[in-house]
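Q: How do we represent a protein-ligand complex in a form that can be generated token by token?
A: Start from the inputs.
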Amino acid sequence: AAKAAGRNCWRFFDPAMLSDAQEKLRLTNSLRHALENNELSLVYQPQLSLKDDRLIAFEALLRWHSTEHGCVPPGRFIPLAEQSQLIIPIGEWILSQACQFIQTLSKLGYADIRIAVNLSPKQLADDHFVGMVKQLLHTTQILPNQLELEITESALLTALDESCSKLHKLKDLGVSLALDDFGTGYSSLTHLRLFPVKTLKIDKSFIDNIPGKDNTLVDSLIRFAQSLKMNVVAEGVERQEQLDFLRVCGCDLVQGYFFSQPLPTKNAITFLQAHSTRNSCDDHN
Ligand code: C2E
Ligand code: MG
Ligand code: MG
Ligand code: MG
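Then emit the structure tokens for the protein with magnesium ion bound:
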């Protein structure tokens, strides 16, 4: 099944060949060298405004093209990076790459585009995290609100008081904060009031059931978020009917394959440029 196929992604690791534990060990050992071997990269998925169709942000998503194992999906290797503490150096690299992309966009005249970066709970728990972000903002000279950090509910609940105080420190740096996969965790409405979070991302699993059984739930989540003056992003939008429904509900931003897959840097810039041109043409029509 697993034929050597060089740099492209058709060679998937065959789990039947080794026990799961052995496979995890092998993947983790390869992951230790992934950064130095240039096997990691970020791809960027657009987030568009439903109010005026403008591209507002990109979400940065990590990819691992392993020379040994082929393309390993994030759902597989991120838990291993977390268990091995490799997520700390890898997470720092992700943030510095994202900040460099922000610099590139600013030089091209797109200083108003935000880049959202996913955070692992392990990163937030790390004592050096807030200082590292502060340093990075200083060295790259980007506007802090061009960077958004995505955190999941479960990440915040592990050490509630500590996480909450770190979020406030990040907010004081001027960084934007988003709650990812909203609806799949356990945060109560009380918790939500405590977190200085600007954006709620409604999980794809709810968007999948539109139109259908989750119409009312999604509509309520959007109203709820907006009553707290939060922005709402719908994740995983794939179909026109979903878009139509979300528009009627007043959802702020949408992200999903309907608009674009996550794109390598160059393609993300091309997408942004094409999108901006189209918007300015529309304006003059
Ligand atoms: P997430 O942050 O909720 O990211 C959304 C996931 O949904 C991404 O999967 C994205 O490619 C996928 N997606 C977006 N639109 C659609 C759509 O219309 N249809 C479908 N089927 N999928 C869509 P991906 O890139 O595989 O990432 C999976 C998860 O891995 C992420 O979920 C996030 O939790 C984690 N992850 C990815 N990159 C990073 C990273 O840089 N750091 C950390 N800590 N976690 C990451
Ligand atoms: Mg995310
Ligand atoms: Mg999500
Ligand atoms: Mg997710």
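The two ends are 54 Å apart (CA to CA). Residues 59, 118, 150, 180 surround magnesium ion (ligand 2) (CB under 6 Å).
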